[in-house]
């Protein structure tokens, strides 16, 4: 973690790690929490493996969808860690993503109350980090982490986990 380049979030999710992992790796589950509500998410490609595509779209009205995430997975450690970047698109071409290029690392750890969920977003320079923070990194990624927690806590209870 480099405080001049990186942004982080941490949250305890009151559900087992496998439920959080499933919410990240199952397209039908990811669509339910990945974008801040009331915006709707559609998963175009979710190939959770190193080099696999991570492509989502978003819609304000549920009818017209626009690009949201065009990225590639760099590291996938089953049940523990996902790393992806939008600096390379799903065809492995260098990209100039808006609003900022980034590499995001999601880690899932054990916690007495469920899952220790951590996000580390790396930027290439302090200006990109500052821009991401100004655009609402904490609010946006925080609300999405809250939606993930609500989704898996609700579904984990429903499935008896």
Essential attributes:
ASHA1/2-like_C, single chain, Alpha-D-Glucose-1,6-Bisphosphate, Chain A, domain 4, SRPBCC domain-containing protein, alpha+beta, START-like_dom_sf, 4 helices, about 30% helix, about 160 residues
Describe the structure.
This protein has 161 residues and is α+β, with helices and mostly antiparallel strands. It has a single domain, classed as START domain (Alpha-D-Glucose-1,6-Bisphosphate, Chain A, domain 4), CATH 3.30.530. It is built from four helices and seven strands, in the order βααββββββαα. A seven-stranded antiparallel sheet has the order 1-7-6-5-4-3-2. Strand 6 (103-111) and strand 7 (114-122) form a beta hairpin. The radius of gyration is 15 Å and the shape is globular. It starts with 5 loop residues before the first strand and ends with a helix. The model has no long low-confidence stretch (mean pLDDT 95).
Would you spell out the secondary-structure blueprint of this structure?
Blueprint: E1 6-13, H1 17-25, H2 27-30, E2 40-46, E3 53-59, E4 66-77, E5 81-85, E6 103-111, E7 114-122, H3 126-134, H4 137-159
Antiparallel strand pairs: 1-7, 2-3, 3-4, 4-5, 5-6, 6-7
Organism: Pseudonocardia petroleophila
InterPro entries: ASHA1/2-like_C, START-like_dom_sf
Protein name: SRPBCC domain-containing protein
């Amino acid at each position: 973690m480099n405080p001049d380049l990186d942004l982080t979030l941490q949250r305890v999710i009151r559900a087992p790690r496998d439920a959080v992992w499933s919410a990240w790796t199952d397209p039908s589950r990811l669509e339910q929490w990945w974008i801040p509500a009331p915006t709707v998410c559609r998963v175009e490609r979710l190939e959770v493996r190193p080099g696999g595509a991570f492509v989502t779209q978003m819609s304000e009205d549920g009818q017209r969808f626009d690009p949201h995430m065009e990225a590639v997975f760099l590291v996938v450690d089953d049940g523990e860690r996902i790393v992806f970047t939008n600096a390379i698109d799903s065809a492995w071409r260098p990209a100039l993503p808006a609003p900022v290029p980034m590499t995001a690392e999601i880690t899932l750890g054990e916690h007495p109350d469920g899952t220790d969920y951590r996000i580390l977003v790396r930027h290439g320079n302090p200006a990109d980090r500052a821009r991401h923070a100004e655009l609402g990194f904490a609010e946006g990624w925080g609300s999405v982490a809250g939606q993930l927690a609500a989704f898996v806590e609700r579904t984990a209870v429903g499935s008896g986990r």
